[in-house]
Each structure stands twice: as structure tokens, then as C-alpha cells.
Amino acid sequence: MAKLEWGFIGFGEAGSAFASHISNHLKRPIFVSDPLLNLHPIPGPVRERLDIAPAEVLRDIASLAAKCDLVVSLVTPRVASAVAGQAAKVWKRGLFIDFNSVSPSEKRAMADLFPQGAYVDGAILGSVAREGAASPLAVAGPRASRASASLRRVGLTVSVVGPQVGAASALKMCRSIFMKGLECLFVETLMGAGEFDLGESVLQSIEQTFQSYGFRRLVQMLVTTHAVHCSRRSDEMQSATTMMHEMGMPGHMTKAARDFLADSSRAGLPDHFRSSEPDGFGPVISYLRDTYGKKR
User: Fold this and answer.
1) With contact defined as beta carbons under 8 Å apart, do 246 and 203 qualify?
2) What tens digit of pLDDT does each residue of 256-286 get?
3) pTM (two decimals)
4) What H or E segment, with its residue span, contains residue 119?
5) 265 phi and psi angles, rounded to 5 deg
6) Among the residues of the chain, which ranges form H helices?
7) What is the Cα–Cα distance from 248 to 260, expressed in whole angstroms?
8) Tens-digit pLDDT profile for residues 186-240
9) What are the chain's domains?
10) Which helix (H) or strand (E) is 161 found in, with range?
11) Which of 123, 126, 153 is nearest to 141 (CA)?
């Protein structure tokens, strides 16, 4: 098999972690391009990353695209499209694997800039800060299987989401809705509990519920009972909203839950299921998607 040349656009925490892993796996330097690497002197933290990851620095994206068969983009979301545009203008061969955290529609717009199949939608599903290059990856697009095979050959953990550009990004975004939402829920919950020094008691109560059900059964229970009890739960969350207001706490997540539950009630969810829990969460999600989809 011919030797494939790897290139990275972006040499921040994520880019340097994966670049270091791949260069060490291949036992040879790979190519990198990042404006910070063109500075004299190179900033200290960036210099330290470069010392860890054997790499040949190229001054611009055009030079990197000309040399590499596989180019990985790991930059900040606000410059992701500009970087893809620069690469697309000079693209000749290989795959452009975009692991930036941007929306599915932005990924599809970037894919249109490249020759058919050259662009691969990617997502990092773990925490690079904690897991480094062991973070699970997902790819999507017409040539996602080829990208996956190449990534696996250099020792990375990757799954193929499907042939549609944007699917990997959507997986990342949906996961973020939960993970970042959970982060904010814990912060807000503990802020409220702190008023009465109940932090430990509240966490123990939540932990018992999770342990009693397990993750999948808890999801099933919460969504299926949402169809029946969204109205009552909205009233309860109004009381919780009042409590947070009286404490002088923001209560953003509390208010959002109240409003979401009220919206489900107004959407006719309890009437549709005749106040009887459905067998699974699928019908609940389908009903709400159909209801809100008609409003678009």
C-alpha cells in the first residue's frame, strides 16, 4: 500500500493531540499548518506542542493541500468555513476530513466547495482534554468508509454514521444538547440546593433514581410519561421557577423546562395519547416532530 501523507490544519489542543498520535504511530513527521506556527518567536504553549508532535510546518493551506492525501481540519468554529474555502480552491486529490464543531448546514455548504466526495464530515465525540487522541470519532459522507479505514489504520477509534454530509455534525450537536444541558442542569440544581445546604441530599436522590432505572430505562420512563404528565410537570416547574427567582438565582434551565413542558401540553400530547403512556418513546418523539414540523 502506498504511503499516505497526513496533514493537519490547526495546531491547538485537539489538532496537536491527534497530530502527535498519528506521527508517533507512523514513526515519521506529518505536515501541519497554523498561523501561530508562522510567528517569530512561536508562542510558548504552541512551541511545547510542536516539541511533542513531530511535524513539518508549512506556511499555508495551499502548500499543505498539495503535499497531503489526507487533510484534517481542526480549527475554531468561526474560521472553519474560511479554512475549507482556502483548501477547496487548490484541492487536487485525497480527502478533507473536517472535525470542526459547526452545524450540519455549514458542513454541507463546505462540502459543496470540494470535488464530489472529497469532503468528509467528522465529529469528536469525547473530551480531548481528558481522553486525548483516544476520543471516539464519527465520520459521514460519500467516502466516510474510506476515511474511517484510514483513521483506524493509524490507531484511532472511529465509527461511520452514514453517507450524508452533516450526519456526524448532527450527532455531535445532539450529544452536546444533552451533555452541555446536563452540565447546566447540575450547576443550576446545585445553586438552588445551596440555599438550604441540600447539595449532597439532592445528588443522592438523583443518583438513586439513575441507579434504580439505569440509563436506557430512565430515558424510556421520562419520555413516555412526558406524554401523560407534561401539564402537571409544567405547573411543578413554575413553582421551581418561583423558588429560583426568590433566591435571586437565574433559573434559565428551570424556566426552559417549564416552557417545554407547557408547549408539549399545548401541542395536544396528553389528548393524543388519551392520558395513557405509550409503549415506547418513539411515538412521543414522532408526534412532537410532526407537530412542530408543520409550523416551519
Assistant:
1) no
2) 999 999 999 999 999 999 989 999 999 999 9
3) 0.89
4) strand 119-124
5) -65, -45
6) 13-26, 44-52, 61-67, 80-89, 104-111, 128-131, 144-153, 167-194, 199-213, 215-247, 252-266, 269-272, 282-293
7) 22
8) 999 999 999 999 999 999 999 999 999 999 999 999 999 999 999 999 999 999 9
9) 6-165 (3.40.50.720), 172-293 (1.10.1040)
10) strand 158-162
11) 123
